[in-house]
Amino acid sequence: MGTIHADSNDKTMKAFDISNIRNCEDVKEQLSGLVEQERDNKRVSSREFIGGYGDGENDGFDERDSHY
Q1: More reliable by pLDDT, 43 or 57
Q2: Where are the stretches annotated Disordered (predicted)?
Q3: 50-57 average pLDDT score
Q4: Contact 4, 27 (CB under 8 A)
Q5: Residue 16, phi-psi category: left (phi > 0), alpha (psi -120 to 50), beta (remainder)
Q6: Which residues face 21 on adjacent strands?
Q7: C-alpha distances out from residue 9 to 17, 49, 67, 68, Å
Q8: CA distance 52 to 21
Q9: Number of helices (H) and strands (E), helices first, in the chain?
Q10: Alpha helices in 1-68 (DSSP H)
C-alpha cells in the first residue's frame, strides 16, 4: 500500500494525494505513461519530477549522483 502525490497546474486542484494504493509503484508508472501519451497527443511539453520525502535508508529511491 502506498500514496501517490501529484502536483498539477490545474487551478482547481493544484496538489493532491491518492492514498491506500496497492502496487503503488506500478500504478504510478501506468499514470505516468498515460500522462505522457496525452502530452504527446496535445503536443505539450513538461517535466516530471519523481522523488521521495526524506532520505530514509530503505525508501526505494536511488541516491543522488556525486556530480549533481
Answers
A1: 43
A2: 37-68
A3: 55
A4: yes
A5: beta
A6: 2
A7: 15, 14, 31, 27
A8: 16
A9: 1, 2
A10: 24-42
| All cell numbers assigned to 49 | 519530477
Q: pTM value?
A: 0.56
Q: Is the pLDDT of residue 68 over 50?
A: no
- Of 54, 18, 34, the closest CA to residue 2 belongs to 18
How far apart CA 55 and CA 38 sit, in angstroms, is 32
Average of pLDDT values for 37-60?
66
pLDDT over 90 at 21, yes or no? yes
Does residue 52 contact residue 59 with C-beta atoms inside 8 Å? yes
